[in-house]
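User: PEBP-like protein, Coprinopsis cinerea:
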Amino acid sequence: MAGEEFEIMAGETLITALTDNDPKFSMTLNGTDEDSTPTGGPYVVMLLDPNGSRPENGTGRNQVLHLMRGGFSAGRSDGSIESNTEPIARYSKPAPVGEEVHRYVVLVYNQPDDFEERASDRVDVEERDSFNLTSFVRGTNLGNPIAGTYFLLEPSGTSTSVRSSSTTTRSTGAFNTEGIPPTFTPLIGQGQKHVAALGSLFGLCFAGLTLLVA
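Assistant: Predicted structure for PEBP-like protein:
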């Protein structure tokens, strides 16, 4: 599979080896062909585990924050969104424990003008397992996510296939696949569609997931 790019639909089960490096992101306008890419920004991207610990007041659940970064912009022909802004929370590799498959969510937001200042006061990078998304969104005026996707991750040592037999592949051309990180691909939505597998976290548009496999 080296040298190929695998398009994996939202909800596919991955193995931890595919999440070793910082993810890259791309977006395609929902309901259009793959050549119709969004423009604009800036965007905020988060990767989190929605099934974290219960807060001290005992209601709901906190989330585990694996990545938060602002300053993403779109407009490239390949649909990629990129950021030159320092991450608020650098990428921390998901590491599910136990024997059950674990769920991770990628969210994309329009970035408010004062986001960086507000966010830095509300994120403790030393306490990522007590992140409260609802409180954070309210405190930073992020509003609703404009895109989102999710993936499932097998604990280390399991042997589940990283993709189904129906997955399509595309050549990566001149890409050097050594050390290439996975590329998660949320789609911008026209309205919102509830995805039951995400629980009550948000009503999200269904999205594809693209990985570069070394």
